[in-house]
Amino acid sequence: MIQDTQKRVVSGMRPTGPLHLGHFFGVLKNWVEFQDSYTCYYFVADWHALTSEYAEPGKIKGFVGELVKDWYAAGLDPEKCVIFQQSQVKAHAELCLLLGMITPLGWLERNPTYKEIRQELVSKDLNTFGFLGYPVLQSADILLYRPQYVPVGQDQLPHLELNREIARRFNYLYGDFFPEPQAKLTETAKLPGLDGRKMSKSYGNCIYMGEAMDSVRPKVMSMLTDTNRMRRSDPGDPGICNLYPYHRLMTPREQREEIRANCTGAKWGCVDCKKVLLTFLQDFLEPLQLRRRELDTSPGLIGDILNAGNERARKEAEATLDLVREKLNFNF
Ligand code: TRP
Q: pLDDT tens-digit profile of 109-167?
């Protein structure tokens, strides 16, 4: 049996913009929790961002540091986990190349995420080798650290399945080597956006992790609630209300029961309910903002965190790659 502290965790995010509460409750919450129990590697997937942003690569640079800031604000502690940047650990590229040799094209073409994103991003030409190979690079990212768990959002499950298939194929061809990493989802998984659809930058329905209360307040006050509740005197149904999932995440249980009773008993209007949510939302955002301010006063910190993390990740990744080269008789 491997002890928990020796179990490894790997995950990454693409640097494509500021993180919102959907990211926090869907993924980051697990990242933060896991750093106390496992050996964790968290990285900025800048090469992955390039698969869709290749025409304007300059944009990616600014987002790298911003992403690490969001992580730090969420509570990732560089003393407890390894925070690094994919493109600074070249082993990812070499393992990607080697895994590419054994990955059948059909697996990539059938990948549901690939099909969906190509349909969504019609404005970009994603008919490229790099974009098709996205899951191969992702497999390399993961397998280099031989982890047991990969904490991701629900949308990544098809990728993870493909990652395991690639690991299995490697083991079949060259002998047992890679563990098959399991996805870890948060309990809540999904947080609806302000309009009830999935929270997403492209829908403009987000509350950002770094957002000030002055900007959050009007957003919450204009949120859709239970759309069947026409009048103040109609009883509401938290089960179909778009606000209630927020209470579930942010409001302590006791108050939540009170809220539920006030809603279903038509004792409260939705405005009352929103005001209560705002107080708990503020309690939630405040510590994040404090940690973010710490960074503002030490401008070199993000660079230092990444440099140290890159170094540690390189060592680990190179060790795996040495063994992989051995398995392939490519240890010249
Ligand atoms: N595809 C992931 C996303 O879009 C990012 C990612 C890249 C990743 N490599 C990874 C996640 C490895 C987990 C493990 O969110």
A: 998 877 777 777 777 888 899 999 999 999 999 999 999 999 999 889 999 999 999 99
The sheet with strand 149-151 has its strands ordered as 82-85, 39-44, 8-13, 149-151, 182-184
Residue 268 CA, chain-centre distance (Å), reads: 36
Please tell me what DSSP assigns to residue 198. B
Of 64, 3, 24, nearest to 305 by C-alpha is 64
CATH number of the domain located at residue range(s) 210-291 in this protein: 1.10.240.10
**Mean per-residue pLDDT of the chain:** 94
Of ligand 1's listed atoms, the one at least distance from the Cα of 151 is 13
Q: Which atom of ligand 1 lies closest to the CA of 137? A: 9
pTM of the model: 0.95
Sorted by where each begins, the domain ranges of the chain are 8-191+299-328, 210-291
Residue 27 CA: which ligand 1 atom is closest? 15
What's the pLDDT tens digit per position in 258-306? 999 999 999 999 999 999 999 999 999 999 999 999 998 998 999 999 9
Q: What is the DSSP letter of 28?
A: I
Cα 257 to middle of ligand 1, angstroms: 37
User: Contact 144/12 with Cβ under 8 angstroms?
Assistant: no
Distance 305 CA to ligand 1 centre (A): 20
CATH of 8-191+299-328, one of 1.10.8.420, 3.80.30.20, 3.40.50.620, 3.20.20.370: 3.40.50.620
The pLDDT tens digits of the residues spanning 51-109 come to 999 999 999 999 999 999 999 999 999 999 999 999 999 999 999 999 999 999 999 99
For residue 233, pLDDT over 80 is answered with yes
* Residues whose beta carbon lies within 6 Å of some atom of ligand 1: 10-14, 45, 48, 138, 141-142, 150, 152, 156, 159
**Tokens coding 316:** 């680990």
Closest residue CA from atom 11 of ligand 1: 12
Fold match between 8-191+299-328 and 210-291? no
Minimum CA distance residue for ligand 1 atom 2? 13
